[in-house]
Amino acid sequence: MKRIGTPVEPPCLAAWRDEHPDATWDEFRNENRDAPNGQRGCAKEVLETLIHAQRGLCAYCELSLREVPSHWPQVEHWHPKDPAQYPGHNWGLDFSNFMAACEGGEKAAPDLGRSLPPIKKTKHCGSAKGNEDHTAVLLDPRRDVPQTPTIWRFDPNGGIAVSPDAPQAHKARAEQTITLLNLDSPVLRRLRKQHWIELENDVQSVWEELGDSEEGYRSAVAKVTAERLGLSPEGRLDQFWSTSRAFFEDIAEAWLAEHPEVFA
Ligand SMILES: [Zn+2]
User: Fold this and answer.
1) What pTM value is reported for the model?
2) How many CB atoms lie within 10 A of CB 193?
3) Of residues 128 and 108, which shows the higher confidence score?
4) Residues near 79 by Cβ (< 8 Å), separated by ≥ 6?
5) Inter-CA distances, 117 with 7, 114, 186, 189, Å
6) What is the pLDDT of residue 69?
7) d(CA 29, CA 84)
8) Residues of 132-143 as b/e, b for ≥16 C-beta within 10 angstroms?
9) Which end of the chain has the least Cβ crowding within 10 Å, N or C?
10) CA of 46 to the centre of ligand 1 (A)
């Protein structure tokens, strides 16, 4: 979980909500699908706005939100949206309550390595969080996660833990966030371990290109750091961004000090 930006609400959602103040999220989504001629519906505009603000990453686990085209990512409601359980405010249509999240390890097919049986134990993100109100104990990636220092520690086996260097004020909620969102799920650990190996291979192959010297190694690390942490021309970030940040350690922190745009 990295610090993410807060997007501006699409006017089409505000207009629909004005007309249907008590409607549910499902009603909004069903009535605002893409038109048969392919014209984008407001439901997709909402989701794409969130994905863009999050630089293409799941707000919780940092999986890429376009790798499974047949399973469009979910609009995650930070505060539960059930009007029967939480009357008084329509959380289902409150844009400030939305984030984009991955499928949470729920989908077994197509198998791109993003789910692992038993699903009940390995699911994560919104799927693990369920409909409980955890807003007081979870870290909110839009407000609570600091840009610096990083509050997470990753290991070469893909495990995530709270960094001993995390600010004291964040530690208890960071622990709860890992537990309640199951961010140390075996399926995420497996994917982050693969990511770690990719980073090692990237550095190795760029080092070989640049020459087998200490100078060449430093240049290779600097080059791969910028590639892995920087924004693509489309404004997206590489998945498992915080794992890359941990991998490159001080080089990453020095690079980030010059590139605050990755948090906006
Ligand atoms: Zn996720």
Assistant:
1) 0.94
2) 17
3) 128
4) 86, 91, 94, 97, 133, 135
5) 35, 10, 10, 14
6) 56
7) 19
8) eebeeebbbbbe
9) C
10) 18
pLDDT tens string 9-43: 999 999 999 999 999 999 999 999 988 888 889 99
In the structure encoding, which two tokens stand for residue 36, read together? 């048969």
Q: 3: CA distance to ligand 1 center in Å?
A: 14
Instruction: Look up residue 91 and give its amino acid.
Output: W
The closest of 51, 78, 193, 188 to 133, measured between CA atoms, is 78
Q: Which amino acid is present at 22?
A: D
The token pair that represents 74 in the structure block: 């979910």
Between CA 221 and CA 194 the distance in angstroms is 18
> Could you write out the DSSP letters of every residue in 143-181?
TTS-SSS--EEE-TTS-EEE-TTS-HHHHHHHHHHHHHT
Q: Which of 44, 45, 64 is nearest to 54 (CA)?
A: 64
Q: d(Cα 217, Cα 222) in Å, to the nearest integer?
A: 9
User: What average pLDDT does range 72-90 have in this prediction?
Assistant: 89
DSSP annotation string for 107-142: --SS-SS---SSHHHH--THHHHTTS--TTTSPPTT
Q: Which pLDDT score is estimated for 131? A: 85
Q: What is the token pair recorded at 115?
A: 């789910």
State the Cα–Cα distance between residues 37 and 51, nearest whole angstrom. Answer: 24
CA 58 to centroid of ligand 1, rounded, Å = 5
- pLDDT computed for residue 108 by the predictor: 57
Q: Identify the pLDDT of residue 50.
A: 95
CA of 203 to the centre of ligand 1 (A): 27
